[in-house]
C-alpha cells in the first residue's frame, strides 16, 4: 500500500481518556485550523461511555497541533455527546452539529 502524506499529530488513549472518536476540521477567521473531536472520559470505551468535545489547534496549516483542550461538556442527563460536524456558513459563522445520546428507558 502506498502511503501519502505524513502523521503530524496522534491522539492515543490514556488514563481517563480510553478512546477518541470522530471529528471535524474548520479554518477559523484568524487562519488557525481547529480539529474538534469526541473525547471519551473515564474508563469505559463503549459507545455509551461519558464523553465531551475537545479541540486541537494548528497555527501552521496543520504541520503541528496543540494538545487537546475541553471545548464542550455533555449536558446534565446525557450519556455523552459525539459525532461532531463543523461547517463554515455563508455569513462566516461556524455551524456546529453533534449527537447527544440520552439514556431512555422504555416502559
List keywords for this structure.
four-stranded antiparallel β-sheet; two-stranded antiparallel ribbon; globular; mainly beta
Compile the SSE list and pairings.
Blueprint: E1 20-27, E2 33-40, E3 51-58, E4 69-72, E5 78-88, E6 94-102
What does this structure look like?
The protein is mainly beta. Helices cover 0% and strands 45% of the residues. It has strands spanning 20-27, 33-40, 51-58, 69-72, 78-88, 94-102. Strands 1-2-3-4 form a four-stranded antiparallel sheet, with no helix packed on it. The protein has a two-stranded antiparallel ribbon with strand order 5-6. The protein is globular and about 45 Å long. It starts with 19 loop residues before the first strand and ends in a 5-residue tail after the last strand. The mean pLDDT is 93.
Query: Sheet with the most strands?
Result: 4 strands, antiparallel
Compute the number of helices.
Answer: 0
Strand order of the largest sheet: 1-2-3-4
User: N-to-C terminal Cα separation, in Å?
Assistant: 51 Å
| Approximate helicity band | under 10%
Mean pLDDT: 93
Total number of beta strands:
6
Helix and strand run: EEEEEE
Radius of gyration: 15 Å
Strand content: 35-45%
Low-confidence stretches: none
Category from helices, strands and their pairing: mainly beta
Per the principal axes of the C-alpha atoms, what is the gross shape? Answer: globular
Amino acid at each position: 500500500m502506498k502511503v501519502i502524506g505524513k502523521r503530524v499529530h496522534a491522539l492515543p488513549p490514556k488514563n481517563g481518556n480510553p478512546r477518541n472518536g470522530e471529528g471535524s476540521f474548520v479554518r477559523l477567521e484568524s487562519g488557525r485550523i481547529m480539529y474538534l473531536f469526541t473525547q471519551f472520559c473515564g474508563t469505559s470505551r463503549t459507545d455509551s461511555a461519558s464523553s465531551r468535545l475537545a479541540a486541537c489547534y494548528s497555527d501552521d496549516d496543520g504541520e503541528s497541533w496543540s494538545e487537546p483542550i475541553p471545548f464542550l461538556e455533555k449536558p446534565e442527563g446525557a450519556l455523552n455527546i459525539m459525532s461532531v460536524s463543523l461547517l463554515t456558513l455563508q455569513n462566516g459563522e461556524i455551524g456546529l452539529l453533534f449527537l447527544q445520546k440520552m439514556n431512555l428507558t422504555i416502559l
